Amino acid sequence: MQSKRKIALISGAARRIGAACARLLHAHGYNVVLHYHSSVQQAQQLVAELNGLRPGSANLISADLLRLEQVRALAEQALEVWGGLDVLVNNASLFYAGQVGEVAEGDWDDLLGGNLKAPFFLSQAVAPSLQQRRGCIVNIVDIHAERGLLGFPVYSIAKAGLVAMTKCLAKELAPEVRVNAVAPGAILWPDNKISAEQEAEILRKVALQRCGEVDDIAKTVRFLCEDAAYMTGQVLTVDGGRMLFT
Length: 246
Description:
CATH superfamily: NAD(P)-binding Rossmann-like Domain
Strand content: 5-15%
Distance between the termini: 51 Å
Order of helices and strands: EHEHEHEHEHHEHHE
Number of domains: 1
Mean pLDDT: 95
Structural class: alpha/beta
Oligomer: single chain
Low-confidence stretches: none
CATH topology: Rossmann fold
Strand order of the largest sheet: 3-2-1-4-5-6-7
């Protein structure tokens, strides 16, 4: 079924930053294809919410991004929903600690697979449609891709690779497709709760002295999709001034 509206595929769209991106792009007239894996209930609630606002405007696809055949199937299914894609938001991410000396090969495979391999192969699979429609890719990276987060070396390495991928694909897919990234700082606390003392320590190093909101990232993604026609290969940092401090 062809759509006259722009179409965005958002990975990891069931909650947190992904859901915020889906809601905002949808509010700006996009049809959205929402990828999810384990967050079934949240994904179903979100697609029902968006279709309640505009019937037939949101579609749901499940895939395990650690399995390459499912990444390829996700791309194929997403392209079939409305006949193509204008935007890919590579948001899905794995985040957990692993200090040097304790990292297992499975940790490496999972963190590099979820944060770098899957976004690359998903981008590659949908690139022809994006080129035909002069679309764009937005990758959600991390401020710690630049300096590394203590205790999270493999995660940081994977996100640094995603920054490199952003710049490489910006060259490879130009001039038809723009490829940019957003690097969040302290936006949401991790699912595994940290102490009030740890939160205070993090915010002490943020110039604006507060945690950001998921909509801060979603608005930046929307800007890169809609208002950044002469930007490609760039990483926009949204961190309240965290990177001003060492």
